[in-house]
Design a protein that fits this description.
Number of strands of chain C: 0
Helix content of chain C: over 70%
CATH class of chain C: Mainly Alpha
Structural class of chain C: mainly alpha
CATH topology of chain C: MetI-like fold
Helix content of chain B: 25-40%
Radius of gyration of chain C: 20 Å
Largest sheet of chain B: 6 strands, mixed
Order of helices and strands of chain B: EEEHEHEHHHEHEHEEHH
Number of helices of chain B: 9
Structural class of chain B: alpha/beta
CATH architecture of chain C: Orthogonal Bundle
Chains: A alpha/beta (264), B alpha/beta (237), C mainly alpha (221)
Distance between the termini of chain B: 41 Å
Number of domains of chain C: 1
Strand order of the largest sheet of chain B: 5-6-7-3-8-9
CATH architecture of chain B: 3-Layer(aba) Sandwich
Strand content of chain C: under 5%
CATH superfamily of chain C: MetI-like
CATH superfamily of chain B: P-loop containing nucleotide triphosphate hydrolases
Distance between the termini of chain C: 44 Å
CATH topology of chain B: Rossmann fold
Number of domains of chain B: 1
Largest interface: A-C, 34 and 29 residues
Strand content of chain B: 15-25%
Oligomer: heterotrimer
Radius of gyration of chain B: 18 Å
Shape of chain C: globular
Shape of chain B: globular
């Protein structure tokens, strides 16, 4: 009995390692929560034979994993952090793949009247002015960095009882917002896939400043000789291929398109 | 033949927390007989046995066995007032010292089973030792101490809390062991028991040996006033 | 998913078992003799060791995870082993988490047993090793409890194995990290379902170990 269990365990574990070409890719929670990875990974495996192992973390941690050489490439969405990563020599180059957008989520009665906002800046000002509860990721992720840059652009210092930095991933932050009936900025994909919407609704979207560019950055083998440069190159070639384009552009949740393929 | 005897104690003394429990003791004992240690409570009976056996650390003086000290304890065994039962079966308890002495498991078990029969525990080999009655426990402790055939056996009031029947059974076992040549040094409160078993008597008072005589001489007429008073049943200080 | 994706469920459940049971065996092999040694032996660093063990019992797993991460990272001292984000890394983290717990409980239990046995085993002229062996054997029921406490802590642990395992699908995902993931997605029903699987498994393992240990005792104990 013990032996059978052990055999099954060992075989599942072995199947999960050794056999295929594997590489590790750090991706952001927002990308993973969108569900797109569930569509892409099997196709990647089929077309290239590469088993991509996803480490789902915030942008900040994804960059750290890349810098330490613990992953072979990263797929993130925070231009400033990406440029710093490249300047430090940790990545070979940056390849834009696709974008989606950020949206503002809030209580369905929309007390701060974000529905009438004219821009993302205006939306944030309305939240600050009415001191409506707001949940921030507060975890140094791409989404968090984007949110901070928007506050700066709106010339508002987000402080006070109404501002809740939870220091958690997108899903956990959305759970908190649902609990507090608070406003929150989220990527559209995470929002659409979120299972615990409660009384929340999409209250503002559409400002071009809210577009969210995803880029693929292979880790530099000069820094970390063990990284799988070839596999990363193969994966990159696939990500910019027409197959990927079709899959990404056609991916919908509740009839809504989430991502726009824009690789060149 | 004897590895241990004669044993000589010179100025041997044990302290605890600065207080002298026993000593300084000067004593010489030879290979044969049953030495009974008597004396009022607190006279140091237990301490004397523990000091000689080496489980109480010697503060001063010396104890010289006929063999090197490292081997001495291998030829001795000790039966405590409250028998210490290992959390094993009767057989496991008896086999343990044999296993320690290097016997194989089947050999140890076979000899342990014989030893159990010797003390009348043959029917309960598989019984967990902690579940035995008081008399059975002490018989088991005694059998366990004797199973390695020590030259010298210390007994610290082994019958203190036993009924008459159990006491008689224990005494029978002790008499047989003594007849086989095992040297016994045993403390007791029971003067009847002392008279029944003793070949020599160590009378302790205030942490030292007050009188050391052959049993007949001691019970016939102790040489010190305190010992005479103690035998009469007076309180001795 | 509990019904439809049961192949995945079986996989992560088995992986949870594999990681935690392996960690448990290794941790017990370290912690039980350590607990016995602490009970039997009076050495100078003993009190300090006990205090450290007690303090480490309260160590947040995520801190252990971070330390193991830093050690195993490609940029860390053991980076060349390439162990980060593997089940092995998760086992290492869990061993570190439960060794202090098992050793402390074992020490508590065996200290009592040792105070019973002290005079007897010294009288029998036993060596240090023989004393440890006797305590481990005769105290095995209490030690089983210590090990099961370690199992409970390890099987429900998420902070450390998330950091060092990475929760990679089909590779390092176990029940607890899957629960964290589904909670993050707001899939509370699924997360709860996985939680029940975890609880059921923990109970099953506890029962199994008790049954096995009882049959081995063959009615004697």
């Amino acid at each position: 009995m013990k032996r059978t269990i052990l055999a099954v365990v060992t075989s599942t574990l072995l199947a999960g390692s050794a056999l295929a070409d594997e590489m590790k890719l750090a991706v952001t929670t927002s990308f993973h929560n969108s569900g797109l990875s569930d569509i892409l990974l099997p196709q990647i495996k089929q077309d290239t034979g590469i088993e991509v192992q996803l480490l789902v973390v915030g942008t900040g941690q994804a960059i750290k994993l890349g810098e330490a050489g613990d992953v072979d490439a990263i797929l993130v969405h925070s231009r400033k952090a990406e440029d710093k990563f490249l300047a430090g020599g940790f990545g070979t180059h940056r390849r834009e793949i696709m974008y989606n957008d950020f949206v503002f989520i809030g209580p369905s009665d929309d007390g701060a009247k974000l529905g009438d906002a004219t821009s993302a800046k205006d939306a944030l000002k309305r939240i600050a002015d009415s001191a409506a509860p707001f949940v921030s990721r507060g975890d140094d992720s791409g989404t968090h960095k984007k949110e901070l840059s928007l506050w700066a652009a709106a010339e508002v210092t987000p402080e006070g009882d109404w501002y809740n930095a939870v220091g958690a991933g997108m899903g956990a932050a959305l759970n908190t917002a649902a609990g507090l009936d608070a406003y929150i900025m989220a990527d559209r994909a995470s929002w659409l896939n979120f299972g615990n919407k409660g009384d929340l609704a999409l209250v503002y979207a559409g400002d071009p400043v809210l577009f969210n560019q995803y880029a693929f950055l292979p880790v530099n083998a000069d820094k970390h000789p063990h990284v799988k440069t070839e596999l990363a190159a193969k994966l990159e070639a696939w990500l910019v291929s027409d197959t990927a384009k079709a899959l990404i552009n056609d991916y919908k949740i509740n009839g809504e398109t989430l991502f726009v393929f824009n690789a060149e | 033949m004897s590895n241990l005897f004669p044993v000589k104690l010179e100025g041997a003394l044990v302290r605890r927390a600065g207080k002298v429990l026993i000593g300084p003791v000067d004593l010489e004992l030879h290979a044969k007989g049953v030495a009974i240690v008597i004396g009022p409570n607190g006279a140091g009976k237990t301490s004397l046995l523990r000091m000689m056996h080496g489980i109480a650390r010697l503060g001063e003086g010396r104890i010289d066995w006929a063999c090197p000290p490292s081997e001495a304890r291998a030829h001795q065994a000790f039966v405590f007032q409250q028998p210490i039962m290992m959390r094993r079966s009767v057989l496991g308890n008896l086999a343990y010292p044999l296993r320690l002495s290097g016997l194989s498991r089947p050999e140890a078990n076979a000899r342990a089973a014989e030893a159990a029969v010797d003390v009348g525990l043959g029917e309960m080999l598989d019984r967990p030792a902690p579940y035995l009655s008081g008399g059975e426990r002490q018989k088991l402790a005694l059998a366990r101490a004797l199973v390695t055939q020590p030259e010298l056996l210390f007994l610290d009031e082994p019958c203190a809390s036993l009924d008459g029947r159990a006491t008689r059974e224990i005494e029978e076992i002790l008499t047989r062991a003594a007849a086989r040549g095992t040297r016994l040094i045993m403390s007791t409160h029971d003067m009847g028991q002392a008279r029944r078993l003793a070949t020599e008597v160590l009378f302790l008072l205030n942490g030292n040996i007050h009188e050391h005589s052959p049993a007949e001489a001691f019970f016939g007429g102790a040489s010190t006033a305190q010992a005479q008073a103690f035998l009469k049943g007076d309180i001795v200080e | 998913m509990l019904i439809t994706l049961d192949a995945d469920l079986v996989e992560i459940t088995l992986r949870s078992l594999y990681v935690t049971l392996t960690a448990l065996v290794i941790a017990s092999a370290i912690a039980l003799p350590l607990g016995a040694l602490l009970a039997v032996r009076r050495f100078r660093a003993r009190r300090v060791t006990i205090a450290v063990l007690n303090a480490l019992m309260g160590l947040p797993p995520v801190v252990v995870g971070l330390i193991v991460y830093v050690m195993l990272s490609r940029s860390g001292p053991f980076g060349v082993l390439g162990l980060l984000f593997t089940p092995t890394a998760m086992i290492i983290a869990q061993v570190i988490i439960i060794v202090p717990l098992i050793a402390s409980i074992a020490h508590q239990a065996l200290r009592e047993l040792w105070s019973d046995y002290h005079d007897l085993l010294i009288s029998m002229n036993t060596t240090q090793t023989q004393r440890v062996q006797a305590l481990l054997w005769d105290g095995r029921r209490a030690l089983l409890t210590a090990s099961l406490a370690g199992f409970g802590r390890a099987i429900g642990e998420v902070g450390a194995i998330m950091v060092v395992g990475g929760n990679i699908d089909h590779h390092t995902r176990v029940l607890t990290t899957a629960i964290a993931l589904e909670t993050g997605k707001g899939e509370f029903a699924l997360a709860l379902g996985l939680g029940f699987v975890l609880i059921a498994m923990a109970i099953a393992v506890n029962l199994a170990i008790h049954v096995i240990s009882r049959t081995e005792r063959g009615g004697r104990w």
